[in-house]
Write a structure and sequence with these properties.
The chain is an alpha/beta fold. The chain contains eleven helices and 16 strands.
């Protein structure tokens, strides 16, 4: 793993940054301390411009290169998850109910490492926009920064990001051209019937029977309403109803998630779910209300930028450590909003064996941070070479 020599020199400092961030996790848009820490580091590095409060608590730092050229955007997310940590590490979270269980502390550290190197060397033309984003896990911080006019304000021409991936070989890279992660939607179904005594069901309009029928019926959307080659995941994840063995309740609640890649599949699921809910309401003489909320869109990599990112990853990790077409997955990512606004690429960076993300025993592998920082730095130098 050929890490850039200068970045290797301050690898221990990067570890200290990451562990500090890990001890002080923040949620959603409330990344005030994290943003302040980032801004302080950027000032120390001599970054030319530091713009705070973009997308509420996001930061964009600008580093000017040597000579005219475009502006390349590099993005890292900053927020944590609402869960308790059980690692027992010396740098464990100091905030009960909050934990960096997805490695965003590591992502922020990798971009800070690249920022330090690029501010020192400036071996590139044009500019670099360092994008530190809040609320990736929930809230759509990427969308908020785009809506704040970030792309136009800083004239960003392309944008790149990466995510650590436990179980993938340490320091290896994976990506794919085109769709790489799914769109994510959420549905809630509220069933209102007429309750009564369990011994007299003929006097009730049973919401439980209707809810079970609805759950069964919507499973046919995947098996009977979409082409088998169009990826679709539709999962019912909650059913809540009832309070006692001899009471037919008044209401039932169902919710779940839908993951798709193609807009026409996304629209079809919503349409069919609406039809099923309306039909089952009539069949079981109950009221059914569907709340269908479209969330993050699909994350779609630009083909040319992905091919270029693969070249840079190969330079850093070696050909055997790069998978250029790893396929797509059903997880979601709000970097999708930035890729909808500008062409770019999203990659996965292997951090070796260990617990997966969103797990209370997870921890970012500090050994991989210099690899990620080196990739970001070379991406800039290769895409926008300095004039001779």
């Amino acid at each position: 793993m050929p890490v850039l020599n200068r970045i290797a020199d301050f690898a221990e400092q990067m570890t200290a940054w990451r562990r500090h961030l890990h001890q002080h996790p923040e949620l959603g848009f409330d990344c005030h301390q994290t943003a302040a820490f980032v801004a302080e580091r950027l000032r120390e590095f001599g970054v030319d411009e530091i713009h705070e409060g973009i997308g509420r608590t996001g930061i964009v730092g600008i580093i000017n290169g040597r000579g005219k050229g475009p502006t390349i955007g590099l993005r890292a997310d900053m927020d944590a998850l609402p869960m308790d940590e059980v690692t027992g590490l010396d740098w464990t979270s100091t905030v009960p109910g909050r934990m960096h269980a997805c490695g965003h502390d590591g992502h922020t550290t990798m971009l800070l490492g690249a920022a330090k190197y690029l501010a020192e060397t400036r071996n590139f033309a044009g500019r670099v926009a360092l994008i530190f984003q809040p609320a990736e896990e929930n809230g759509g911080g990427g969308e908020a920064m785009v809506r704040d006019g970030m792309m136009e304000r800083f004239d960003i021409s392309s944008v790149f990001a990466m995510h650590n991936n436990p179980g993938q070989a340490l320091g290896s890279f994976q990506t794919t051209p085109g769709p790489i992660m799914a769109a994510v939607d959420t549905f809630e179904i509220h069933v209102k019937g007429r309750g009564g005594h369990g011994a007299l069901p003929h006097l009730t309009a049973d919401p439980i029977v209707a809810a079970v029928a609805i759950v069964s019926a919507i499973q046919t959307i995947s098996s009977r309403n979409h082409h088998t080659m169009d990826d679709l995941a539709l999962s019912v994840t909650q059913i809540h109803t009832g309070s006692a063995d001899n009471i037919v309740p008044d209401t039932a609640y169902i919710c779940g998630t839908v993951r798709t890649f193609e807009p026409h599949v996304r629209d079809m699921v919503c349409r069919r779910m609406t039809q099923i809910c309306d039909g089952q309401a009539g069949a079981y003489d109950v009221e059914v209300r569907l709340d269908y909320q479209q969330g993050y869109p699909a994350t779609v990599n630009d083909h040319a930028r992905t091919a270029f990112a693969v070249e840079v990853a190969t330079e850093i990790a070696g050909e055997a450590q790069v998978i250029p077409d790893s396929g797509r997955e059903m997880g979601a990512e709000d970097f999708s909003y930035m890729l909808n606004s500008r062409p770019g690429c999203y990659l996965f960076l292997g951090q070796g064996e260990g617990p997966g993300v969103h797990n209370p025993t997870y921890d970012f592998n500090d050994a991989v941070a210099p690899v990620g920082a080196s990739f970001f730095a070379r991406l800039v130098e290769r895409s926008q070479p300095a004039p001779l």
